[in-house]
Sequence to fold (108 residues):
Amino acid sequence: MSFHIIEAKSEEEFSPLIRVEWEAYDTPPNAFWDLLKGPSIEECTQRQWAWHGFDPNSRWLKVVDSASGQVVGGGQWVINREDPFKKPMPSIEATWWPEENIASSEPR
Fold:
């Protein structure tokens, strides 16, 4: 069994990587992931692709099974050429979860 690493450079290449992310973080249950993932895999993929596009230092790499072509893993690398903490980080509002969804969500 051999694998190769490919940088995801389009949303089409990115989508299978997020499917693997959903599987990896969903079992065993992970409360932080439950908040971060949002209401659907499609929304999560679009949001993470947008975040990736806003950061010129972001690189998403996927691990692909050479025999099947299936994505089996991956990760995001952010390599900053300058100190990213010189300026305060902006706060992030979790707009992907409207307040009524958070208040009514049930724990696993």
Notes: The CA atoms of residues 26 and 89 lie 28 Å apart. The mean pLDDT is 88. The helical segments are 11-26, 31-37, 41-54, 99-104. The first strand starts at residue 3 and ends at 7.
